[in-house]
């Protein structure tokens, strides 16, 4: 017997309501604490050098043990920034800054175990950065020849490509990488201030030295011909925090005067709606705005104006919104590794929301006043998208949820672990594993890939590195965002 049309309508309505309710049940709950733990664990899989006894990522082994030996310097340690085996100091310094900034802003929200693990992750990088500036008027900026490295598909433990060391000696300029190193060490000094005061002092002293090198010999490190052939086109953009982190770490008035008098040079009036390893303007403006919001430095208002403008551009309801979103709601910037933009901008949204909250302020976006709650909603949308609330129904963090990328563009993850297969796998022998359609044998837990395209589509293709390659500078700002939401998990929208 056929049901009546009214019964069909009721049944259809009930089914729709059931599906909506089911979707909300799945989408509105995210285990931010689990995601935080895994986002930090990722960094252990990126380690270079001698691995400690408490190493938790068991499929990795020691690697890069001779780094720097050809130049008579110890450059072991640090992180491989992505799925290859080169150590680029520029993005590594940015990664260090963001991990340390996560501790500075959200460390109190972290469980003690994860705060410890984050500090360990910071120190693995900051120890290496200290080595990179250990010689007067010289900064080591890279280890590994990227051309030969990228022509191979081999585990870091098997590396037989050239471990070329790239350095810049004064008076040749290296302002970008030296300034970012100064920022990283200054931020790290703040992160360690309570946990290890002695180490904090060492970091700050070296941050001041790195800043002096950056400011005394101004220009991009990639302008040096011997560096350009190694760094470009990978990491050769020019920008930096300059004195901002040193001001915050030292409270020295000379740094704030520097920031105020160099506002135009530092890009305070450049309303660029992005933030990452190669463009610090938005982060610089947010960082400096803290002093303006707290009412202590009115001569820095230009930075606050630009920071406000940046926040307005991120709110779709604002008349000045001009950032691009995918149909599913993800912040999107053309180019590869898009989630680096989503995670770094999310971090700034939460930091600025906290600054505004503590002073009961809002941002004027034309006809709309935007408060901390609106900024946090936008941030949570981005985090939830990454964790699986998206058209693909996929978590873009490996090892989180039931559906996540299986074929990430990562040498160590895609090749058999040296613990399981100790025989040497030569440069071209790894191609067999690269071309395999099977999942990676080593699950790189916590790795966040480059993410979907502007149409929200992700094909889980190892060869498509723009979408499938994880990087340290995607994860680093996400650590702070996840720490906030782990402590404040209530859905905001």
Would you write up a description of this structure?
It is an enzyme of class 3 (hydrolase). InterPro entries: 6-hairpin_glycosidase_sf, 6hp_glycosidase-like_sf, Glyco_hydro_9, Glyco_hydro_9_Asp/Glu_AS, Glyco_hydro_9_His_AS. GO terms for molecular function: cellulase activity. The chain has 493 residues and is mainly alpha-helical. The protein has a single domain (27-48, 65-487), classed as Glycosyltransferase. The protein has helices at 5-27, 32-41, 89-106, 112-132, 146-150, 175-191, 197-216, 225-231, 244-250, 253-261, 281-293, 301-313, 339-358, 372-387, 411-414, 431-434, 465-468, 472-487; strands spanning 87-88, 138-143, 165-169, 324-325, 331-332, 363-365, 368-370. Strands 1-2-3 form a three-stranded antiparallel sheet. Strands 4-5 form a two-stranded antiparallel sheet. α3 packs parallel to α6 and α11 runs parallel beside α13. The longest helix has 23 residues, at 5-27. It is globular, with a radius of gyration of 23 Å. Mean pLDDT is 89; it is low at 1-27 and 232-241.
